[in-house]
Amino acid sequence: MHTPPDTRRFFSQPAESLAPALLGTILVRTLHDGSTLRARIVETEAYVGIHDRASHAYHAHRSPRNESMYAPPGVLYVYFTYGMHHCANIVCGSPGEPVAVLLRSLEPLDGSSIMRARREDPRHTRKAPIPDHHLCRGPGNVCKALNIDRSLDGIDLVTDNRLSVEIPSNLPISPEQVSKGPRIGIGDKGAWTSAPLRFWISNCPSVSRSRKDAHRRREV
After folding, report:
1. Chain segment 58-84, per-residue pLDDT in tens
2. Dist CA 132 CA 205 (whole Å)
3. Any idea which fold 7-176 has?
4. Counting C-beta atoms within 10 Å of the first and last residue's C-beta, which end of the chain has fewer, N or C?
5. Which residues are bridge partners to 178 per DSSP?
6. What burial letters (b/e) apply to 159-191, b meaning 16+ CB within 10 Å?
7. Tally of CB atoms within 10 A around 41
C-alpha cells in the first residue's frame, strides 16, 4: 500500500515530535525487480535544526551533501559516513527548515531473506544466519538491508513508489511503550550530546544496543 496523500501533513511537524510519532509506522521498500521489503520503525533520532550542534545543518550549513535537508517535509535525506555506511533520514518541519529524523533501527516484517542476503558478507563464514532482529539494528544496517544509498537522496516518500511510509490505524503507540534518551555516536557536542532526542519502543530486541537504557525516560 502506497503512502496516502495526507501523510504530507504527518511529516510537517517538528523533528522532536515526528521522531516518536514514527515509531510503529512501516517503511516499505520496493526494489528494482519488484520485490517488496517491509519493516517497522522502532528507533529514531531527531535533529532539530540550525541550532543543533549535532545536525549537518548546524549554523545553517548548506552544501550538495545536505541539500535535501532543506527540501519539503517527506523528502528522504541520505548521507554517506565513515567511508562505509549510508544513513537515511526523513525531512520534516516546514519547507526550507533543515530538520530531519534519522531512521536508526527497524523490525523486519516482510522480505527478511532478502535483507539477510544483503547484510551477510560472502567472504566471511558464519556459524549461524543473522537473526531477524539484528538485520536492521543501527542506521547503517537499515540502509544496507533495504538497499538505500545516495541514489535515493532527495526522493519524495509521499509520491515515490521506491520508498514510502505506511501509518497503521493502531497508532500512535502508547506513551508507556516509548522510551527516550541521548542520541548515539554524535561525539562531544556540548549539551546536545546528552539531549534526549533518541526515541525507541521499549524492550524491542531490534533497538540499538549502545546506550540502550542510558538516561531512560518515559514520554509524557
Report:
1. 999 999 999 999 999 999 999 999 888
2. 10
3. 3-methyladenine DNA Glycosylase; Chain A (3.10.300)
4. C
5. 201
6. ebebbbbbbeeeebbeeebbbbbbbbebeeeee
7. 27
